[in-house]
Amino acid sequence: MKTPFKFALLFFLSGFIFQSCQDNDDIAAPKNLEVQNFIWKGLNQYYLWQNDVPNLSDDRFENQAKLNAFLEGYPEPEKLFDALRVDKSIDKFSWIVDDYLELEGSLQGTTKNDGVDFGLSYKPGSNTEIFGYVRYIIPNSDAANKAIKRGDMFTAVNGTQLTINNYQSLLAAESYTLNLATYNGTTIVANGNSVPLTKTVLSENPILIKKVINSGSHKIGYLMYNGFYANYDTQLNEAFAFFKSEGVTDLVLDLRYNGGGSVETATRLASMITGQFKGKVFAKEQWNPKIQAYFEAENPDYLNNYFTDKIESTPINSLNMTKVYILTTKSTASASELVINGLKPHIDVIQIGDVTTGKNVGSVTLYDSPTFGKQNRNPNHRYAMQPIVLKIVNSVGFGDYFNGLTPDVEQKETITTYGVLGESTEPLLSTAIGKITGTAKMAKQIGKDFNYFKDSKSLNGQNQMYIEEAPEGLLKSLK
Q1: Domains observed in the chain
Q2: pTM of the full predicted structure?
Q3: Which of 153, 199, 443, 444 measures 20 to 30 Å from 111, CA to CA?
Q4: pLDDT tens digits, residue range 449-468?
Q5: Can you spell out the DSSP letters for 230-279?
């Protein structure tokens, strides 16, 4: 979609960095500070809020020796990373890992997973105790062979009540027993049942359901899509080939549990839904001031993401829709929100469900290498960063949805009235069908609405909107 800028930007931006280093080029970061040195230089170069962090200023350290002295105060790389971020109320999504192999897997839908995709909410009347509920079961997983299903609730793991302080450690184990529960009309109580689960390396196909629903004169394509994983783009294109061959007249895109993923995949999905906008701007990227200023002056086209008609050399199967119905919840995030916001200037987007997460910023994987890319990575460690590096707006410049995108038809999904995903009677889908055909009203809200906390995708680092690679050659290597 874009060709990396490798050389001109190198010389432009290197002038900002370590202006006095030529007098100290014999001093390099010692081995015990290699990771810290990588963190500082990567964030100094790419971090969206670099200008707002004094210790990331281009002129903060006059030479490598003084930078080293600063880095020595952070023997734990993770603490340095957190110290160099803006307030977490602004940057809620940057993160660092000590093993980039796991990071790469999670961004492509591969995780250590037992197959239970779940949400977490507060127990009624409590601000510390939480409970889990099953949203769907991933096919071919351990859970797919166990007595657990959509709508089941659990309050404890291995007999220990879930709280906001212990949920991460309890649910991070590779095997555990979920203690199931029910809602008694007042609170969530244990019901005596339990399910043992074991995690395996699991690759989730994000296309959970694709089908055509016939309703009167309408042939409604329904796609439940749970992650923008680029290695499944061919299967996504095949799903739209199916819709095209069936002659669908309308489309319902279910993104209620989609935490996001690849910007490129989001652009391709938008192109599959439409098809009549090839070459027009789908979204625009906004980087930190020094990178933004260079692109605006030298190559403004780099900042644009365009509707396309191909995946590499494969033609995209497009439906030429002028209206799309999109189902959302509080778990709908990042690349999912990009699709909604990016399509709005071009076609009618009818959003049904709840307010989305509000992730209008994107990240990139940075490695400890001369260009921060995969080539020539430092063999001494596997640390990598996933910092926020850009904000994305649509073709008319709107991207201020930090508090989420508000639905056109508000209808919160409730656990006690879940319904079967993909069935025309399922509440959110039923409302969409009714809006399409004009023959039904919104399903009446009769279920209990619990206070949402988190979900399994956010725990696995899958609530992302990321670009495939950063522009290369931005940092002048120090001798």
Answers
A1: 8-103 (no CATH), 112-203 (2.30.42.10), 207-447 (3.90.226.10)
A2: 0.91
A3: 153
A4: 899 999 998 887 767 787 88
A5: GGGHHHHHHHHHHHHHHT-SEEEEE-TT---EEHHHHHHHHHHH--S-TT
